[in-house]
Amino acid sequence: MSLKEIISKPDLLLRGHSACPGCPSTIALRMALKALGEKTILVIPASCSSVYQGVYPGVSFNVITYNVAFASAAAVASGIKRALTKKGYTDVNVVAWGGDGGLVDIGLATVSGAAERGEDIIVICYDNEAYMNTGIQRSGATPPGAWTTTTWAGKTEIKKPMPFILLDHGVRYVATTSVGYPIDIYNKVKKAASFRGEGLRYIHILAPDPPGWRFDSSLTIELGRLAVETGFWPLWEAEVIGGKIKFRLTPPSTTLIDPSKRVPLERFIEKQGRFRAMKEWHAEKLRQQMELYWELVRAFLSLSSGE
C-alpha cells in the first residue's frame, strides 16, 4: 500500500495533542492506529503518550485509552483482552503502547510474563532511548556514548536488545521498524494485527527524539532513516510457527548485512548533540553494540534457513 493510500485512511490520532514539535511517537502512533482501526484499545504506561493526549477537557486519541501504572501495561492489556474474549468481543485489538522506560525497563516483567503466557495482545514500544517524559534520564535502551541527565559523560553500556529478547520468548510475531519508514510501520502493525488469536505480538519502533537527542525538530524522519541506513538499527521481522522461526530482513536492511553497503555511522552521530562528548572508547563500544545486533541477525537468519 502506498503512503498516499495509508494517509487517506481515517485518522484516529486527532489534532489537539500537546506533543513536542517533531515528536516521533505521534508519527508512529498515527501510522499504527491507521493500521489497527477503530476497534482498538490502547493501554499506556507512564510516558510521553500519557501526557500529550490532549489539553483538558479535550482529547486527541479517538480510541478507548487506559492510562496505567508504569510497570503494568502488559498485565492490564492481558486482563482487558481476556475480559473482552469472555464477553464474546473477539475482533478488538488490545495494544500496550509505551516507551522504552515503560516497556523495556520498568515494564519488562509484565511484558515477559504476557509473552510467556501467550497473551493475545500487541505490545508496541516507541524507543526514544531514554526516559524523555521525566527529564531525559538514561534507560536500558540508551546507546553507548549518549548524553543524558544521568550519564552526562556518556553512557558506558550497550543498548538492551529488547526485540531479540522477545523473539527468544517464542512469541508469534516480532518486528523492528523506524519512524523514518512510516509505510514499514503501517505494514508491520497491520501484519501483527492479522495474527489476532495466536498469542502476543511485539513491535519495536526506533523513535529519534528532538529534545532528548539534541537535534532540530525538522530532522526526525531523516535521523530515523539514517539509523537504518548506517546499520545502527536493522529492520527485520520474525514469525514463530510450531516452534520454528521464520526470520527475514526487511528493506532497506536487506542489503545492509554487508557493512560496505552502509552509510558511514558518523553521518548519524554528527547530527545529534547527545553524542558531542563521545570519546573513542565510547565509539568502539557503539560499534560493538552494532556488531552484536548484526551477529544476532545472522544467527536468526541461519536458524531460519535451517543451516
Show the helix and strand layout:
Layout: H1 3-7, H2 24-36, E1 40-45, E2 64-68, H3 73-86, E3 93-99, H4 100-105, H5 108-117, E4 122-127, H6 162-168, E5 173-178, H7 182-194, E6 201-206, H8 210-213, H9 220-229, E7 236-241, E8 244-249, H10 265-269, H11 280-305
Parallel strand pairs: 1-2, 1-3, 3-4, 4-6, 5-6
Antiparallel strand pairs: 5-7, 7-8
Strands side by side in the biggest sheet: 2-1-3-4-6-5-7-8
User: In terms of quaternary structure, what is this?
Assistant: single chain
Instruction: Report the sheet-strand fraction.
Output: 15-25%
Task: Report the total helices.
Answer: 11
Unreliable runs: none
Mean pLDDT: 96
The helix content, as a percent range, equals: 25-40%
In the CATH hierarchy, what is the class?
A: Alpha Beta
User: What would you call the structural class?
Assistant: alpha/beta
Order of helices and strands: HHEEHEHHEHEHEHHEEHH
Provide the CATH superfamily: Thiamin diphosphate (ThDP)-binding fold, Pyr/PP domains
Structural commentary:
The protein is α/β, with parallel strands linked by helices and 307 residues long. It is globular, with a radius of gyration of 18 Å. The model has no long low-confidence stretch (mean pLDDT 96). Helix 2 (24-36) packs across helix 7 and helix 3 runs parallel beside helix 5 (108-117). The protein has one domain: 3-Layer(aba) Sandwich (Rossmann fold). It has eleven helices and eight strands. The longest helix has 26 residues, at 280-305. An eight-stranded mixed sheet has the order 2-1-3-4-6-5-7-8, with helices on both faces. Helix content is 37%, strand content 16%.
